[in-house]
């Protein structure tokens, strides 16, 4: 039995680069790639990703890094935006697919912070 790898590419902030990256992965690996331009910080964005790949075997939740700047310059709103992007959005994405992942013992989640 030969397994066909499946990949998904999601990009926040519109489709810039998303479809090109998907094409490069497909060409370079032969994987079946689905590109989704979505914002993980929104319910619609997470729903679009789950609709495109409802049963992922591997979920990587790297939704970006910390906001640039100095620690002491971050106000309350900046902290809330950072927590939304880097903690809450990935947790909600995991919650959306964890049931299927647990039913398939080979599934893995990779949370990157």
Structure description:
The protein has 3 helices and 4 strands. With 113 residues, the chain is an alpha/beta fold. It has one domain (6-110): 3-Layer(aba) Sandwich (Rossmann fold). The strands form 2 sheets. It has a two-stranded parallel sheet. β3 (58-60), α3 and β4 form a beta-alpha-beta unit. The longest helix has 28 residues, at 76-103. The radius of gyration is 16 Å and the shape is globular. The model is unreliable at 1-7 (pLDDT under 50).
Task: Give a quick rundown of the structure.
This protein has helices at 18-29, 43-52, 76-103; strands at residues 6-11, 32-37, 58-60, 108-110. The chain has 113 residues and is α/β, with parallel strands linked by helices.
Protein topology:
Layout: E1 6-11, H1 18-29, E2 32-37, H2 43-52, E3 58-60, H3 76-103, E4 108-110
Parallel strand pairs: 1-2, 3-4
In the CATH hierarchy, what is the class? Alpha Beta
Gyration radius from CA atoms, angstroms: 16 Å
- CATH homologous superfamily grouping: NAD(P)-binding Rossmann-like Domain
Strands side by side in the biggest sheet: 1-2
**Distance separating the two termini:** 36 Å
Counting H and I runs of at least 4 residues, what is the number of helices? 3
Structural class of the helix and strand makeup? alpha/beta
Per CATH, what is the topology? Rossmann fold
The portion of residues assigned to helices is 40-55%
How many domains comprise the coordinates? 1
Overall mean confidence score, pLDDT: 77
CATH architecture level-2 label: 3-Layer(aba) Sandwich
Low-confidence stretches: 1-7
> How does the major sheet shape up?
2 strands, parallel
Our estimate of the beta-strand percent is 15-25%
Shape: globular
What is the string of helix and strand elements?
A: EHEHEHE
């Amino acid at each position: 039995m030969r397994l066909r790898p499946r990949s998904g590419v999601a990009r926040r902030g519109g489709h810039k680069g998303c479809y090109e990256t998907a094409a490069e992965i497909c060409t370079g690996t032969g994987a079946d790639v689905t590109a989704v331009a979505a914002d993980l910080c929104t319910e619609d964005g997470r729903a679009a990703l789950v609709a495109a790949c409802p049963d992922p075997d591997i979920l990587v939740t790297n939704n970006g890094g910390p906001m640039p700047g100095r620690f002491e310059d971050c106000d309350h709103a900046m902290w809330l935006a950072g927590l939304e992007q880097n903690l809450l959005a990935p947790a909600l994405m995991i919650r959306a697919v964890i049931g299927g992942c647990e039913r398939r013992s080979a599934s893995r989640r990779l949370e990157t912070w």
